[in-house]
Write a structure and sequence with these properties.
The protein is of the alpha+beta class and 77 residues long. Helices cover 14% and strands 31% of the residues. The protein is built from one helix and four strands; from the N terminus they run ββαββ. A four-stranded antiparallel β-sheet has the order 2-1-3-4, covered by helices on one side. The relative contact order is 0.22. The model has no long low-confidence stretch (mean pLDDT 86).
């Protein structure tokens, strides 16, 4: 399957936006390929085949963010 991935090359707001086409079985594999080619990439949008452009969310690839307790890093307990 062909994926079109739009991403920022660096993690800054003024970083240029690039587009890459990747042949992968899943969106997750395509995103892994982008990040392996451009380590500091921030994925913005993706398109499956000739479908609609979709804003990227980590849940699209099955990733979950976990709440962090800031007190866990406190030196004073």
């Amino acid at each position: 399957m062909n994926w079109k991935i739009r991403f920022r090359v660096n993690k800054t707001a003024n970083s240029p936006i690039s587009t890459i086409r990747i042949d992968a079985d899943s969106l997750r594999e395509a995103c892994i390929e982008v990040v392996s080619l451009y380590r500091d990439a921030t994925i913005l949008e993706y398109q499956e085949g000739e479908g609609a452009l979709i804003q990227f969310d980590l849940s699209d690839i099955g990733a979950q963010s976990y709440p962090i307790d800031p007190n866990a890093f406190s030196a004073i307990k």
